Amino acid sequence: MSLATVAPVQTVDPAARTAGSGLKLALGGAVVLLLAIVSMFVGVSDLSAPALLAGDPAAWHVLWISRIPRTISVILAGAAVSVAGLIMQLMAKSKFADPSMVGTVESASLGILVVTVLFPAASLFLKMGVASVFAMAGTALFLLILRRMPLRNTLIVPLVGIMLGGVIAAVTTFFAYRFDLLQTLNSWMVGDFSGVLQGRYELLYIVGALTVVGFVCADRFTVIGLGQEFTTNLGLNYNRIMMLGLVIVSLISAVVVVSVGAIPFLGLIVPNLVSMYFGDNVRRAIPWVAVFGAGFVLVCDIIGRTIRYPFEIPVGIIVSAVGSLIFLYMLLGRRKTNGH
Amino acid sequence: MATNPIPAALSVSARKPGRQKPVLSAGFLLAVLGVVAVAVILVFMTIELRGNLGYILPRRAIKVGSMVLVAVAVGLSTVLFQTVTANRILTPSIMGFDALYILLQTVLTFVLGGQVVLSMVAPLKFGLEVLLMVAFSLLLYRWLFTGNGKSLHLMLLVGIVFGTLFRGVSALMQRLMDPSEYLLLQDLFFASFNQVDGTLLLVAIAAVVLVSIPAWRMRREYDVLALGRETSINLGVDHRRAATVTLVICSVLVAVSTALVGPITFFGLLVASLAYQLVPKFTHAVVLPVAILLGVISLVGGQLVLERIFDFNSALSIVIEFIGGLVFIGLLLKGSLK
Predict the structure, then answer these.
(1) Contact A313 B172 (CB under 8 A)
(2) Whether residue B14 has pLDDT greater than 50
(3) Among A106, A152, A156, the residue to mutate for chain B (most B Cβ within 10 A)
(4) Mind listing the pLDDT tens digit for each residue in A237-283?
(5) pTM, entire model
(6) CB-based contact, A149 to chain B, within 8 Å
(7) Domain map of chain B by residue range?
(8) CATH class in words for B55-334
(9) Strand, coil or helix: what is B12?
């Protein structure tokens, strides 16, 4: 793990750290809450605090049907995708792995495409199930390829992942083209919360539950990050934990793609930034990853909704522009610390 | 062509020492590929030929012409780029060159406005774009490739992320644009082999011929450059100058092919890898034409098969993307990256 760290881990006195961390986390939560409130008042149809206080039924309607679902889904998706990225990085033993970069998200889209073509009338739930199975297969394939790699360098992991994702995406595009579903496909590949309304986002509560599972099992994922032998020596079942991680990551990716589309780089950027500031202890980092992920997507979503008001820019585009910049900074900053 | 101008000790073999196969001679290989390429083109031009010939033939000629041009541009730029960067896996496309082109197009439209860009004379606009592209890519890639001891993986990853960044920023600017301007711009990206503009093809041919001449004249120098930066400097090659000239050539070639038909990420990797496998002795005088001929055969042949057998229209780039991605993973797995 130490080889893979992007920035030197902060060394702070552990006692002082635990004392202040609960407070800091509460503060982080408060910031997210504030952003959430701001997010609820951004939008085309009029919604103002005075109107809500006066009990204007139209304003309350907008709030219930559109704004609250949207804000909740942004928070859930942001937190879950970031946590999935952290788990993926532990499973792949690379700081540069992310479900949107190793083929998981692409496989999920292929799954949705297959079910859309074969059973056009399928329920959202069935689509999600098929997408999850595909996502799991794609992720497993990636991990299998990684095991076969002759030289395992931290940087080769994302390279293989990006290419595998590209190959799977090419298959998807080919069939989408054949069945005239290219436009539908684009909407899965670009994350966008503009379509979120009451009744159309509830699946995302599943990823909320999965994130909690991730929290609970955080220590186990730390251990598999240290390798198969180490895990077995501690008396834990390596394969079972890998399977658990695979299921969590794949389900989160599939549900998010089905509900709002892919959010690139999120699972990569957030865990890395968090580990820069809070170190590599997963149990301590994971709540921060969730909080930071939710806040980051909230900010990007607010930007996307205001920058070209009244039009809306999908959050996926904002995140990929901002995210690739941050990623570049991490890569090249790493080069400097290595003395090149 | 059969005589090798470089002493045997200097030529770099594509294979590991233990795996030498009895190979075709270079002249024979070129002749066979040449004949196949011509045959494929002839079939493409004449298959199911009926109706108004005066209408069909020029259209097909433009299509074939643009495919041949793309094959030349991609084959040349990939092999030269790989030689100068001393690797078998980076290509201009993978390094984000064509995403850069799209970004420049977008910025131009964003800054000048779609009407201005559209009303510019095609050759003038094209020249301006190529100039900007060359300038910017030189800055960027010189910076990435100067110095030594750089990790190839890091460079590759940085290149890919730059590509993502360029695409992300382009997408963002496109969304910020006036929707009507966006429509004008969109037409520029989705040009396939089916909608190539005849005048632009002529300009593109002129540009490719112009940069191909110095590239071809430097072929011996490239054989030395292929030995690596240090060795070639020791052998008296001005590596910095050669690398700069090559990056300019690559920028022009990539700009031309992207402007003409849109980005094809893995095509170069595919033909270059295949060419290295086929060519008995690694000399650029053989590898370059082999890569180009392979490009012509696979583009024209692939389009022929897709159009006539599968009844598709512009899915060729998707097929290339698929096969190219597999080849790339294979190369990574084989550990040909050092």
Answers:
(1) yes
(2) no
(3) A156
(4) 888 889 999 999 999 999 998 888 889 889 999 999 998 888 778 88
(5) 0.79
(6) yes
(7) 55-334
(8) mainly alpha
(9) strand
